[in-house]
Amino acid sequence: MRKIDFKFALPNLITIVGLCLGLNSLKLAFEGSFERALIFIVIASIIDSLDGRIARLLKGTSKFGAELDSLTDFVNFGVCPSIILYFWILNNFGFYGWIVSMVFIVCCCLRLARFNLDIDEKKEFNWKVNFFKGVPSPAGAGLILLPMIFSFSSFKNIYQINAEMILIIVIFVSLLMISKIPTYSIKKVKMSKNGFILLVLGTVLFFSFLFKNTFETLTIFGICYLLSIPVSFIHYSNLNKKYEK
User: Is residue 129 within 8 Å of 100, Cβ to Cβ?
Assistant: First the structure.
């Protein structure tokens, strides 16, 4: 019987844990425990950001692991957030709310399929590895869930988001995912030692605030990401002009 090396098994086990968290978020949403469902999705997104890095660190990357990660992303950041949002508010629109939910899921599927095809192209143009085409699926999930996160934060006393606006947000984010608008990717960003120290300190502060004021921190983080999209577009355009010369 063929034995599996632990360095290949560990990243895949972590990915499976993330998948289980995503599936459990659906169960919690069905039971009406939306705050806990959001927390499970957040934890799943953190795990998603770690499994690939652990695989590369252990030199345990594999084609199987890449496919498993992609399928898990589709479930956790395509199916789960859309269904959670449907249980929360989109069901008020009946058939149209369900159609919008399916549109997001299909766009997530298309976005992930295109991402897998774009890997070879990025190997040819080194500077492009720092950008995604369109909004990545974890970010897309966060953006459509942002109104829900906002409603559980203390910011809800400042501004009220109506159901129609949420419907528009889901459609808008769906289009952003399948668009070719460049957005930042930090997977292969190189930094100095001082930059790494600042990153560590920033990460500690982020998680400290996340534990203390979970939904407020997630709201601010989501808004900051949304604002980064036009910045990344301008940055990409400038680099593209530079390297085309």
Answer: no
Distance CA 171, CA 77 (A): 15
User: What size, in residues, is the chain?
Assistant: 245
Whole-number Å distance between alpha carbons of 212 and 193: 29
pTM (predicted TM-score): 0.90
Closest among 97, 129, 102, 95 to 115, alpha carbons compared? 129
The percent of residues above 90 in pLDDT, for the chain, comes to 55
Q: Kindly report the CA angle at 96 between 136 and 25, in degrees rounded to 5?
A: 50
CA angle 74–161–77, rounded 5-degree value: 5
132 backbone dihedrals φ, ψ, rounded to 5°: -95, 160
More confident residue, 187 or 43: 43
Q: Single out the residue of 18, 6, 1 nearest to residue 137, CA to CA.
A: 18
CA separation for the pair 45, 9 (Å, rounded) = 20
Sign of CA dihedral 12, 15, 19, 20: positive
List phi, psi (to 5°) of 179: -75, 175
User: Distance between CA atoms of 220 and 13, rounded to whole angstroms?
Assistant: 31
